[in-house]
Amino acid sequence: MKPEIMTTEVLGYPAVGLRSEAAELMMVPQLGGRVISLKNRKSNREWLWHQDRPDWLWANKAGDNFGLSPQAGIDECIPSVASCNFKGRQIPDHGEVWYQAWDLDIKALDQGMLTSTLELQISPLKFSRTIRLMDEHTFLFDYVLENKGFEEEPFIWCIHPLKNIYEGDRLLLPEEVNSLRLDGGIGVLIARGDVWKYPEPFSGTRLDLCQVPGTGNELCVKGFAGPLQHGWAAIENQHTGDRLDLYWDPKLVPYLGLWINRGLGGFHHVALEPCTGIPDSLTIAAEKWKEIKTIQGGEQLGWSLKIVVR
């Protein structure tokens, strides 16, 4: 379908977006290709979280702490989510692309596609993402990764979509997901690799209701499901009926990360994170857990993610 193309400025940064009668999406190429808004135009629900402050967007540079970035909306993480040293390269926290300005393809924009590309500064990789509207409710994210080097490169790709939490929100995961392999958390004692039952690891604590066990005001947890047979996850509000679905090919993207934050940094948000490798550290994924994708020298790989706003 032919979408309405939006161009504007948000807090001084050029932003571009796509809109149908039912949904709209807005991104800022200059700020790591960050998607800052994903809205249901019928109910007016904004799915993406940002900090509750007037200056909630700003630019970052290489070496900046991700925790001091805007963290607003959707970031892309590649080739690692956690900071690590891999092949003698110091990979930043949340990867190499969130702090870079992306090159927006103006010709593709005229055709209703948000296509952006950038070359990573540390790893020999080139990353491209195209967003288009498939129908009034569905955004398709197409990804292409190219290895510009000569050697095989292990990598983790993970989409990092921080979503608002409203009363009545419930996470919906495939029936095959009955446990999570943990990577970390705050408020409860966790060792990397521990396994929790899903959705109720402890009596009275429901992860699917965005609850986190433990004590204190800064509770959070990160865990993984997979490898999966079904590439699907959703959030549905039991009061309003608002729903957000994610669909992907589990042969290409075998895992789902779940991040729930109930107070860390004073923030409350949840993220369903399809990913190609686990845990968050590329070094641990490649050398210890052996749960990783690789790309050969000179090769290109592609995968897709559908996001449905209903």
TrEMBL record:
This is Aldose 1-epimerase. It comes from the Bacteria. GO terms for biological process: carbohydrate metabolic process. One of its GO terms (molecular function) is carbohydrate binding. InterPro entries: Gal_mutarotase_sf_dom (IPR011013), GH-type_carb-bd (IPR014718). It comes from Gracilinema caldarium (strain ATCC 51460 / DSM 7334 / H1) (Treponema caldarium).
